[in-house]
Amino acid sequence: MNRINATLTALKAAGKTALIPYITAGDPHPDMTVSLMHGLVASGADMIELGVPFSDPMADGPVIQKAIERALVHQVNLRQILKMVTEFRQIDSQTPVILMGYLNPIEAMGDADFSKMARQAGVDAVLTVDMPPEESGGYFEQLQNANLDRIFLVSPTTPDSRLNAVTEKGSGFVYYVSLKGVTGSNQIDVADVAKHVHHLKEKVAMPVAIGFGIRDGETAYQMAKLADAVIVGSALVSIIESHSESELLDIQSFLNDKMREFREAIDRADGEGS
C-alpha cells in the first residue's frame, strides 16, 4: 500500500477527513519551500500538494498566478522541485507529496525520466491539470510503471463518460473542483457541491477530495462533511504573498494559525459525524 492509500485508509478508519494544503514550490524563495512543507505537516497537514510553476497556469486564479510568477523569478524548475522533495524526505518519510502542475515541464524533461526521478525523490502522485484521461496514453503508463498515483480534476460539468475514464486511468483520489472557474474564485454553493459529490461517489470508487474556494474554517467544515479530504490553497498562498522573502518565521507563524483554523474546523465536522 502506498503512502496516499495508507494515509486515507488510516484516516477513514479513525473517522477523520484529510487536510491537504497547497503551496507553490519556490514561493517566496526556493530555499524556503522545504521548511514551509515541514511546517504545514507540523500544523495539521495529512498530505502536501506542491505546485510546479509554469508560465501559463490556466486553472489558477490571481493569487496562485502571482505565486507562480514569484517562483519563476528565481527560475525554479522541475528538477529543483524534485530535489526539494528529496530534501523533505530526509526528515519526513510518511507524509504523501502530490505534484500539481501542467504538462509542458514534464514533456521538457521526458515522461520516462520524470516518472523515474519523481519516484526516486519520494513523490507519491501527479496531478497534471491539462492532461485529460482520454488522451493520457503513454504518459500515464510511465507514471503507473513508477508506482505514482494519477490524480484527475473533476468539475460540476464533468460528464459520466469522463468519470468512467477517470475510474480507469486514475488512482489515489479524485479531486473535485467545488465551483466553476479558477482557484480562489467565487463562493461555494454547499447544496450543489453535495449533490455532485454524491453522484461522483456513486460513479467512482476512489476517495474524493474537494478543493477550490475553501477560504476559511467554516467552508472547510462544510466540505469535510461531504468529502474524504479537503484541499486548501489560495488562502495559504495569500499569506505568503503578504510577506517578504526574509520573513520565514512570520510566514510560518501565520500559516500555522490558518492551518489550525482549517484543522479544527475539519476535526469538528468529523466529531459531529461520528
Q: What is the residue-averaged pLDDT?
A: 90
Global outline = globular
Structural class call reads alpha/beta
For the record, the count of structural domains works out to 1
| CATH T-level topology | TIM Barrel
In the CATH classification, which architecture applies?
A: Alpha-Beta Barrel
Work out the helicity level: 40-55%
- Spatial strand sequence of the major β-sheet: 5-4-3-2-1-9-8-7-6
Q: Give the CATH level 1 class.
A: Alpha Beta
| Major beta-sheet overview | 9 strands, parallel
Distance between the termini: 26 Å
Order of helices and strands: HEHEHHEHHEHEEHEHEHEHH
Number of helices in the DSSP assignment = 12
**Uncertain stretches of 5 or more adjacent residues:** 181-185
Q: What proportion strand?
A: 5-15%
Radius of gyration: 17 Å
Q: What is the count of β-strands?
A: 9
> Please, what is the CATH homologous superfamily?
Aldolase class I
Keywords:
single chain; 274 residues; alpha/beta; TIM Barrel; 9 strands; 50% helix
Report on this model:
The protein is α/β, with parallel strands linked by helices and 274 residues long. The protein has a single domain (3-268), classed as TIM Barrel (Alpha-Beta Barrel). The chain is built from twelve helices and nine strands. It has helices spanning 3-13, 33-42, 62-73, 78-89, 103-109, 111-121, 137-145, 160-169, 190-203, 217-224, 234-241, 248-273; strands at residues 18-24, 48-51, 97-101, 125-128, 149-151, 153-154, 174-177, 208-211, 229-232. It has a nine-stranded parallel β-sheet with strand order 5-4-3-2-1-9-8-7-6. Strand 8 (208-211), helix 10 and strand 9 (229-232) form a beta-alpha-beta unit. The longest helix has 26 residues, at 248-273. The chain starts with a helix and ends with a helix.
